[in-house]
Each structure stands twice: as C-alpha cells, then as structure tokens.
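Example record for the data management plan.
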Amino acid sequence: MAVVAPLFLDFTFEAFRSLAKQDENKSMQKLGAKHLLQLLAEMEWVGNRTQNIPTFSFLVRAVLRWANPFFHPLHEGDTQQALDYLARSPAAIAAASA
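Corresponding structural encoding:
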C-alpha cells in the first residue's frame, strides 16, 4: 500500500495533466502545466471551497484509517443516506425500469 498508493496517485495525475494539456479550454491547459504538488493544493482548495470533490487531506486521512489493522467498514459512511440517494438517482431509476 505504501508503494502502490503514491504510484497510483502519480499515474492518475499524469493522465489528468495529459488530458488537460490537450483541452481547448485555456484554464484547463494552465492546470495541465502544473506540477503534482500544485495540483494537490488546487484540489484541496477547490474541495474546501465547493464541497463537490474530496479534499486531499480527506483522502490521506481515509487511507490512514483503512491501513489500520483494526479497521472495519461498519462505521464508514451512512447506509440510509446511500439508500436514499439510490431511491432518487436518475441512473438507478433508469436501471430499475429497464
């Protein structure tokens, strides 16, 4: 985990940077030119500002929780919240009616 997680993160951000550099949108091209640490800082800032994406600090805390040998997913997340979302999700409704 200690080796794979940083490599996965690096590969994911490299894929993002490659796609962003090819985008016609100038703001995306600027993001694609940033280095990994700058992208992580941007992710943290946008996550805190919009609450639409997980912040980098949240992801680090989650990995540390999951790496704990005593971790159990019982207290992770809210089952009722997930079921409520599935009840109103357009994709889930479409899949159930298909």
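Summary line stored alongside the record: DSSP finds six helices and no strands in the chain.
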